Every structure is written in structure tokens, then in C-alpha cells.
Amino acid sequence: MVIKDRHSRASGAVVGSAMFLLLAVCLVAGCSARSESDNRIRVAASIVPVADFCRNVGGDLVEVRSLIPAQAGCGHTFEPTVGQMKFLADADVFVINGLGLESWASDVVSKVGNPKQVTMVASDSIPRRLLLPTGDADLLSSARKGENVYDPHVWLDPSLAIYEVEAIRDCLGRVDPVHRAQYTKNAAAYIEKLKALDAKVAVLIAPARRKEFVATHPTWTYFARRYGVVQAGEVEELPGKEPSLAQINLLMDKVRDLGIKAVFAEPQLSPKAVEVIAQDAGPRVKVFTVDPVGDPENPAVATYVKLMERNAAIICEAMK
After folding, report:
1. How is 31-48 classified by DSSP, letter by letter?
2. Is residue 233 within a helix (H) or strand (E), and if so which, with residue range?
3. What residue spans define the domains of the chain?
4. Is it true that domain 17-200 has CATH number 3.40.50.1980?
5. For each successive 10 residues of the chain (320 residues), what is the average pLDDT?
6. For 205-318, which CATH class?
7. How many Å apart are CA 72 and CA 60, to the nearest integer?
């Protein structure tokens, strides 16, 4: 099935020919064949939060793997390993966030060439009136003239994450209609947890006296809109690309002019520029680390719910 995300861009040489040669050898040898006793639906998800949504909806009926490791963050750029490609080649469903986040996905899916695989774009379910324009220079530069380009980090607003969970529920129900009722039941229970999470985060953020912050990357706009805070600036227009000295100076001026006291780093990106801004902008400016994706290997942020609760607590503390 063709990926529906109209903002995705093929990355060209995402995966080298040597990798695909090895993948082909493995497939011919049956390396990716699943056990006959394992009738679970195989789901490949692009990023960690989407994988967690799939696990909560699918429960014991699915085997879910996130292609992009937690250390890689949101996966704007990504090159899958042979093992990841093997799993994707044998997956029944491939779920991506969409909105241009996985610019590599179309190329990877076309090279895998699994005609029975269903590729689903979770963000397609979100009404366009709820989307925000992006500040990501990479997405803007790759857009066609006149095309609306939206911020892809929708999962950082739990109320928008619910739309993605509902889309995953419907997709699994179509792929595995025998268990549709169970997917519906699982999704309903998880959506109640997301609603409770949304309410809890709102309570945590409400006491914040300061509203403005600076982020490493244009990541937190949906979170900011939902909970009444302001992402006043970004250190990196492109993930992993160090800002120029002129950009840093402009950002430090903004920090001083607005009286910003919190600069947010992300564990997947270098904190160097963030630390420079915090150090030079004034003695009361501090760096706090917030995580947009979480890590299944870290109990503190192993699930989406835990991740968002932890981020909310850190942001609240930063804005006191």
C-alpha cells in the first residue's frame, strides 16, 4: 500500500545497496519468517511514541517494534539497520506519524516491496484545523510552492495523540477483523488514560508563573498551545545542525528581552549551543532537559504516559 503522507519526501540514498543485498540474502534464506505458533500481527512503527500507541491498542495480539531507536529522537533523518529492514519486510502493518517527519519512509517501503503490507499515517486522522505551521527549515525547504507545511510533533499534545490512537485502532481492526472488538476495547481504555494524562499535565503546568521558554528544536509548539506556555525561540532550525554565531546572538537578545529563564535541551541532541546561550544570557537562565520521544529502556520514560508526566513536571519546575 502506498504511503498517504503527502508531505513525506524520498531521501534518495537512505539505505545502501550493500544493505539491501544482505537483506535479500536473509529473505531468501528465510531469516525473517515468523514462527508458525506466533499468530500475532507484526507492527513496525517509526518512532517510540507511535510504537507505544500500537502496543496499547494491540495488546497481546500484536508484536510491535519501533524502527527509530530512542537515542535518535524524532527521526527526521534515519538509516535503518539490516535487522530493522528484516522486521519491516515481514511486518503486516507499518505505522508512521506523518506530516513529513519520516521523509525516508517512502524510499524504504518501496525497496522492501511487500505488497501485502498496510502502511498507515497516524496523523492523517487529525483535523487540519488543529495543526500548526512548522518552523522546521528542512520541511519548509522541501515543500512545494503554496503547500501547507505543518509541525509534525503532534503527539506532544495528548488530545491530538487520541486521534492517532483511534486511527491505529481502526487500522488494526481492518487488518485483523476477527479481533476488532478487542482492539476497540483496548483503545477505549487507553484513551481514558490519555484524557486523564491531559488533565494531569494541565494541573502540573497551571502554577507556572513564567510562560516563555527556548527549545533546542521546533518541537514543543503543540504542547505549548495546549497548556498555555510559549515556545519563544529555537536554537536549531535543523536537527543536529549547530546554529551560527549570529543566530545565537539573536536568540540571546530574545532571552534577555523577554526575561526567559528556561532553555530546554533534548537528550538526543547536543546541548552545546543551549548551554552557551544559557551561560551568556544571564546568571538566572538555566538548562532543563525534556524528552520528546522517551525510551523503553528507561523506566522513568518507558511509556508515553510516563514521558509526558515527567516532561510536564520538568517544565513546571523550570517556569517557577
Report:
1. TTPPPTT--PEEEEESSH
2. strand 230-234
3. 17-200, 205-318
4. yes
5. 42 42 42 57 97 98 94 72 89 96 88 90 97 71 66 97 98 98 98 98 90 90 96 77 82 89 90 85 88 95 98 92
6. alpha beta
7. 27
